[in-house]
Each structure stands twice: as C-alpha cells, then as structure tokens.
Amino acid sequence: MIPAGPILVPGPVEVVMDDGTVVRSDRFMVALCACRRSRRYPFCDTSHRRRVRTRPTEGAGDGGSVGE
Ligand code: FES
Fold first, then answer.
1. What is the pLDDT of residues 29-52, one digit of tens each?
2. Which of 2, 24, 31, 39 to pair with 50, CA 20 to 30 A apart?
3. What atom in ligand 1 is closest to the CA of residue 40?
4. Ligand 1 centre and the CA of 30: distance in Å?
C-alpha cells in the first residue's frame, strides 16, 4: 500500500457503500480509495497525489520562539 494512497485488491470486486448500493469493478486489479478524495469514490482516481502533506516547513509558526 502506498501511504495515503489506494488499497490494491485483485478484481473483480463489489463494494457495498454506506447507503447499501453496490458498486462493481471487473478490472484485474482494483485500486480502492483510502483517502476519500477521489471523485470516483470508492475507486482511486489518483487525487491522493495532490496536496500530500510532508513535514512542515521550517519557521512556519511552530511556536518555537526563544528568549521572550
Ligand atoms: S487513494 Fe487515490 S484518490 Fe484516494
């Protein structure tokens, strides 16, 4: 699994959504969205690649002032 990325499962798969609807994919390998940013949820549309947070930048208001 890619951190903050999809969960890859062998297809075909059927996913039961919260409202009870069933979504099916017949692909050989199915990428299920784990970040909930996908416009094709429950399937990954690579939206997880955008705005992935890394470490905060230095001096970005971390409250680490000294000498006050
Ligand atoms: S995991 Fe790829 S869009 Fe959510």
1. 999 999 999 999 999 999 999 865
2. 24
3. 3
4. 12
Mutate to test the pocket of ligand 1, among 7, 30, 33, 40 (most ligand atoms within 8 A of CB): 33
Q: Is residue 64 part of a domain?
A: no
Over residues 4-17, the mean pLDDT reads: 94
User: Structural domain tally of the chain?
Assistant: 1
d(CA 25, CA 31): 10
**Separation CA 68–CA 27 (nearest Å):** 61
Domain limits at 43?
Answer: 7-49
Q: How far apart are CA 9 and CA 28, in angstroms?
A: 9
Ligand 1 proximity of 30 Cβ (cutoff 6 Å) = no
